[in-house]
Amino acid sequence: MLIxxxxxxxxxxxxxQPLPLYIESIGYNGNQENVYRPAxxxxxHWLQTVKGAGxxxxxxxxxxxxxxxxxxxxxxxxxxxVRSQGEWETLYITFGGSQCPAxxxxxxxxxxxxxxxxxxSPLEYYGREVLxxxxxxxxxxxxxxxxxxxxxxxxxxxxxxxGSRSSISHAVERLAPLxxxxxxxxxxxxxxxxxxxxxxxxxxxxxxxxxxxxxxxTAYSYFILLRIRKSKExxxxxxxxxxxxxxxxxxxRDASHFVATFRRIEGVTPEQYRTLY
Length: 277
Hints:
Elements: E1 2-4, E2 7-11, E3 22-29, E4 35-37, E5 44-58, E6 61-65, E7 69-73, E8 79-96, H1 100-106, E9 113-116, H2 123-136, H3 143-159, H4 168-185, H5 193-198, H6 204-215, H7 219-237, H8 243-249, H9 255-266, H10 270-274
Antiparallel strand pairs: 1-2, 2-3, 3-8, 4-8, 5-6, 5-7, 5-8, 7-9
Helix pairs in contact: 2-3, 4-6, 8-9
Organism: Paenibacillus pabuli
Protein name: AraC-like protein
Keywords: DNA-binding, Transcription, Transcription regulation
């Protein structure tokens, strides 16, 4: 529904069987008015600044919502927002779904928070692209909008920055030389955390912080998973390789340790895994 040239809002068709994730409404406001919601909004609510700035109050905090920033609120979170300078252009999305709480929690997006991003980040334009897509296409099933919403949450997880914490995309970019090193030296059993940390030139503790932020695990755990993945490539590519030979090719000093690690991660032994292919 087109309201005015400066205010567009679209409501998605309701469904008898809700999708795991769906957009309830999406819109653009070229002159954002003041909003006061002491009981919050019944759905998850995203608000980002397109141009200008506003003052947003939630969870006992007051933040400036300027360009390259947005707020994500869970349902029923009391909040209010007002213009803080000139005209304030905003884009907003309200969404829900049967699996929405589980999805947002698994991505670490379940709590109310201010998110910021780089000007060249895909987050800067994705919401507007979705709005344009919905305005030009009748997605009666809601499936495309559901996929768009999931993609948006993934982008927010990857590129969004909260507090002093850098984005996952920044962390991965910094770790890229080390990941290349791991791919080249996975067969070397002498590689440890100290050698890994020397590649980006940081402490082992900081290295583990970056890996946990990016991949949810320590650097060495990531390296072990890489070795197991490579072992599967070796085993399925050469049926004549013994377990002992495979273990040596992926950096394990003895076959028993390799078998135990493989079984812990994959749920089957290397020999059992080979029979599946």
